[in-house]
Amino acid sequence: MKLQVALDTLTLEDCLTLLEETKGSVDIAEVGTPFIIEEGMRPVREFKKHFPDIEVLADAKIMDAGELEAETAFKAGADIVTVLGASNDETILGAVKAAKKYHGKIMIDMIAVKNLEERTKEIDAMGVDYICVHTAFDVQSSGKDPLDELKIVNRVIQHAQSAVAGGVKLSTIDAIVEEGAGIIVVGGAICNAQARAEAAKEMKRHLR
Ligand SMILES: O=C(CO)[C@H](O)[C@H](O)COP(=O)(O)O
């Protein structure tokens, strides 16, 4: 199980400090979607330069032009790139093609996918590496629990590993660990903590 820290709203400088502080706890540094909108691929390059031992995920949430956009992120040094599960199959397959070329990985973000079971089966057969259930920022306050979706994905996947994102915190991580996931993504619960290094360490301690 890997711990991925989602870096969405911090400055580049603060992210580099956070990654230094949390060394040994964080397996994957995510350049979050808002960060990409702000800075493009610069954080991907900088994270790779300063922390060559940490995997870097570009949360590009690709929806079209899969091969082209994934290639841009892989060329910048990303190890993993996200593509939306709601995209056309051609987009996902294009991104998988780029991943093969650059020896990278594709994570499919199932955010807002309605036919989760059926779509997971289809996507699992496309050669992607991770299928991530994701409670969107915009619906987290509704109290939506990602566990039900994670159970569906874990039940149907045969090739990919599962991942979970969206509002994960210390009080919810044990149930996720119990259910099982290849990657657990934590953003605010680490980035907004008073003691970020301790928060990341504690999260990591709960993983298997
Ligand atoms: O991709 C995202 C939003 O679309 C976030 O990076 C993801 O939800 C993790 O952050 P948090 O733990 O703060 O919800």
UniProtKB/TrEMBL annotation:
InterPro entries for the chain: 3-hexulose-6-phosphate_synth, Aldolase_TIM, HPS/KGPDC, OMPdeCOase_dom, RibuloseP-bd_barrel
Please give a single GO biological process term from the UniProt record.
Answer: 'de novo' pyrimidine nucleobase biosynthetic process
MF (Gene Ontology): 3-dehydro-L-gulonate-6-phosphate decarboxylase activity; hexulose-6-phosphate synthase activity; orotidine-5'-phosphate decarboxylase activity
Query: Catalytic activity annotated for this protein?
Result: D-ribulose 5-phosphate + formaldehyde = D-arabino-hex-3-ulose 6-phosphate
Query: In which pathway is this protein known to take part?
Result: One-carbon metabolism; formaldehyde assimilation via RuMP pathway; D-fructose 6-phosphate from D-ribulose 5-phosphate and formaldehyde: step 1/2
Where do the Orotidine 5'-phosphate decarboxylase domain residues begin and end? 2-203
Keyword match Lyase:
yes
- The enzyme class is lyase
Q: What is its EC number?
A: 4.1.2.43
Q: Cite the entry's keywords alphabetically.
A: Carbohydrate metabolism, Lyase
The UniProt similarity line reads: Belongs to the HPS/KGPDC family. HPS subfamily.
The name on file for this protein is 3-hexulose-6-phosphate synthase
